[in-house]
Fold this protein.
Amino acid sequence: MKVAVVGATGLVGTKMLQVLAERNFPVTELVPVASERSVGKEVEFKGTKYKVVSMTDAIAAKPAVAIFSAGGSTSLEWAPKFAEAGITVIDNSSAWRMDPTKKLVVPEINADALTAEDKIIANPNCSTIQMVVALNPLHKKYVIKRIVVSTYQSVTGTGVKAVDQLMNERKGVEGDMAYKYPIDLNVIPQIDVFLDNGYTKEEMKMVKETCKIMRDDSIRVTATTVRIPVVGGHSESVNVEFEHDFDVEEIKAILRDSPGVIVQDDPANQQYPMPLWAHEKDEVFVGRIRRDETQANTLNMWIVSDNLRKGAATNAVQIAEYLLSKNMLL
């Protein structure tokens, strides 16, 4: 199968190549795509070097699927052109997520909504993905009324410039700043731009995407998203109010049986999820599972996942795998 990766030289694009190789997706020919300044450069995939090509050349190559990680404006311009050529696009930007004509997919939850006619498929926001993977099985059993989430997000979510900023600050070296403020030994309570309601765009993504993925507009979500000096994954403190009461041990049992979830919850031995352990893994890790003693039918939990993998590359590749298994990729 001929596969295009758009944004192949970026942080997420590089991770997508790694995940495609690790999961043995049946790539017979890779079509790496990047900006004009990167055309002609080489990327390596499974021991073979491929030259980076332009968008126009990628469409002409007629891949079966194109996985995009090149930013919203690029996707808005080019994804429809790929789709018109009969190429299925799986897009990692925010461009199509809330478009009512496009599916927003986490395979463990709503891949069944996909059809062969879906030529542009949206990959959700990284912080939303890990939260809904953990919460959806609980929603089925207890019915979620409200979610209060605070995130602790890795600099890798911003990109390589932010990673460089953190490492430069650690070394005491001056360099380009991805953020307005230092990130080392600091916490920045802003991810993306502020909106008129006082929330950031990232926070509102979590609000809107959660309802769309879980197919329930009645779920109320409020979020605070925070950037911390960590490389390896995003963490989330989640408070969930259910319609029905629950047993904490049953909650843990449901999560243990849920695809893509690993429960790490052993307070006696100080075992709980951390980005240190989630790094380079595809699962969503859940711990600190306990009843909120201030309110009925309410649970506290801690959710951690590698944002470049399940939060981006792996989820996109899993969508492609699902399409392939249902013979929806030509």
